[in-house]
Design a protein that fits this description.
Largest sheet: 4 strands, antiparallel
Bound molecules: zinc ion
Number of strands: 7
Distance between the termini: 46 Å
Number of helices: 6
Length: 207
C-alpha cells in the first residue's frame, strides 16, 4: 500500500506526498514519527502514519507497529473507495461468467484496484493469491462482503458512519471463506457475524 496521511483539520485521508517512494528502491524497515504535511483539500496540517514499517522494492509499505489511528487509516475505506472496489468486483464476476475469460487479466485488475483503494484487503488478497487458497469466485465473494460492511448502501442498506468491521473480524471472515474445506461443490458464503449489518434494506416502518 502507499503511505497515508490524515488531515487534522478536515479529516481528509490521502496518499502522503512526503513519504512516497516509487519502484526500484531498496527494501527497508523504517520508523516514522511526527511527520506533518499540507492537506490537499483544505490546506490544513495533516499527519502521516506513525510507527514501524516495512517497505518493499516497489515502494509499498506494511505497518509493523503503530498507534491505533495509523492502523485505522489502513483499515478504513471511504465510500468512494468502497464503490470502486464494488465496481471492479461486479465487473470481475461478469467477466468470469464468459467462456473465453482471461483469468489472469481479471486477477490483475482486481489486484490493482484493491491495492489502490483498500490496502487492508490487499493483504488478504496476497495471501489468497500466493497460496492459491481458493477460487476467484471465493475471492470476489469475500471482497464484496467486506465492501458492503464498509458501505452498506452498496448492498442496498443504510450508510454507516464508521467502518462496520475491524481487521480482526476481517481475518475471521477471510478464514471462513478460505477454510480448506472441499466437501461441497457449491461453497456457501458464511455468516459475516453478529455485528455485521445485513445487506438487505430494513423493512419500512410507518412512523
Ligand atoms: Zn484538510
Amino acid at each position: 500500500m502507499p503511505f497515508y496521511a490524515q488531515c487534522a483539520n478536515c479529516g481528509h485521508e490521502f496518499e502522503s506526498r512526503l513519504i512516497n517512494f516509487g519502484p526500484g528502491v531498496p527494501a527497508i524497515r523504517m520508523t516514522v514519527g511526527s511527520v506533518a504535511e499540507t492537506c490537499p483539500r483544505c490546506g490544513g496540517r495533516a499527519r502521516t502514519m506513525e510507527g514501524q514499517f516495512n517497505m518493499d522494492s516497489q515502494g509499498r509499505v506494511d505497518v509493523l507497529s503503530g498507534p491505533q489511528w495509523t492502523r485505522d487509516l489502513v483499515v478504513r475505506m471511504t465510500p468512494a473507495q468502497a464503490r470502486k472496489i464494488h465496481t471492479v468486483a461486479t465487473w470481475a464476476e461478469a467477466e468470469l461468467a464468459k467462456p473465453d475469460v482471461d483469468e489472469e487479466r481479471v486477477r490483475e485488475r482486481i489486484d490493482q484496484v484493491v491495492e489502490r483503494n483498500a490496502p487492508v484487503l490487499k493483504k488478504f488478497l496476497d495471501v489468497m493469491l500466493s497460496q492459491r487458497a481458493g477460487t476467484l469466485y471465493q475471492l470476489l465473494a469475500f471482497i464484496l462482503t467486506v465492501v458492503v460492511l464498509f458501505a452498506p448502501q452498496l448492498g442496498g442498506g443504510e450508510p454507516v458512519p464508521d467502518p462496520g468491521i475491524t481487521e480482526d473480524q476481517m481475518r475471521d471472515l477471510f478464514e471462513q471463506y478460505f477454510a480448506p474445506e472441499t466437501d461441497s461443490d457449491t461453497p456457501t458464503p458464511p455468516n459475516p457475524g453478529p455485528e455485521a449489518p445485513t445487506p438487505e434494506p430494513p423493512p419500512t416502518k410507518a412512523g
